[in-house]
Amino acid sequence: MIRVLKLSGQELAAVAVGDVEDVGKLKRHLLSLYDLPVCMLQLVQDGCILGDAAVIDAPGAVQLVLVPVSGASQGEAAAALIRASAKGNVETVRLLLRAGANKDLENREGNTALIYACLRGHMEIVRMLLEAGADTELTNKIGDTALTLACAAGRVEIVRSLLDARADKELTGRFGDTALTCACRKGHVEIARILLESGADRKNEYGALVLAAGKGHLNVVHLLVKYSVNFQSDGKFSATALGHASESGQKKVVNMLLEADTNKDLTDASGNTALMCSSLEGQAEIVRVLLE
């Protein structure tokens, strides 16, 4: 067997003699395993750098040295880091970061290695990127940040790590949604709680309450009411929290909001009250509750 070792002596790969004829093919084999740019791979044996044409015809060990990223390999290394972060390939990410790959380069969609790792839930890679100083506030082409995507995807521990790294809680993603709005829209109550406990702005989060109410996320609505997120806004929004819950048939949410003394006569931007919204949508049971 031909063993490929890291500088630490840890084995990265083992290949049967005969499966690879020369160093060039061994490098391509490593590429298939770890998606490392071939231009950065250097194999050393007994202190000598092996050329790509060097024949491998006997068992033994070779050491992999990842050549530090230079101008020529910067783009390839950064692209490989993004792919490895998206796929959850921890070892590749570790090797590329040590070689100096650009942590914050964006692909054509504007996604960085950190954004992909957060979206896909690769906690260890997120930790490595943050420790390496990855920028938490970069946005992709549609305005999403690592934090807004992690909140929408329900990645609790990743959200904690991003907040520990001082990610901005108030940056907005697509449609102007903050991290709290993204969590509430999807019903991720634990993430909403973490954001509120860490000081997320409650004054401008009426939209989060409206979305949670319309989706029937009872626990989220309860949390937002507990933290005194404004639920009495009138006329400024396309929907009120009570109106959206009413037209969507979310009886438990309607009852909760009424118990919290929500004004039943609040109107949305079209001048409709909750009663009018529920009537228009044929929500007879909600109509009865509102008329009580």
UniProtKB/TrEMBL annotation:
Keyword field: ANK repeat
Pfam families, sorted: Ank (PF00023), Ank_2 (PF12796)
Lineage: Eukaryota, Sar, Alveolata, Dinophyceae, Suessiales
InterPro entries for this protein: Ankyrin_rpt (IPR002110), Ankyrin_rpt-contain_sf (IPR036770)
Signal peptide extent: none
Stored PROSITE patterns: ANK_REP_REGION, ANK_REPEAT
Record has Calcium as a keyword: no
Domain of life: Eukaryota
UniProt repeat feature ANK, residue ranges: 76-108, 109-141, 142-174, 175-201, 270-292
Protein name, per record: Kidins220 protein
Tagged with keyword Repeat: no
